[in-house]
Design a protein that fits this description.
single chain; mainly alpha; 2 domains; 5 helices; 0% strand; rod-shaped
Amino acid sequence: MQQWAEAGITDAQLDDAVERARLQKPAPALIPAKYLDAIVQDILHPPAPPERKAPTDAWWTSPQSIDRKARELGIHALQSDTYDSLKTKIFDKLRGSKACATS
């Protein structure tokens, strides 16, 4: 407990740790010190939130962005192509280049 005090745990945090422990070990069961220590450490040093990935380029959401992505990849739309068919060609090319990159 001295280490917890030196680490700066407050009474409220310690009460929270005991409450969390009691969810798994209801009274009158004893709470082992190591078990409580793990909870205290989580309270004192909470895990970092997962990193949020930057939004991807949602090129498939508009005709203009589909055209732009096709030009980027060197795909020339045929007169008979619709945006759906052009989108399919782009996805196929992207999948092909990922397959090549992983093999």
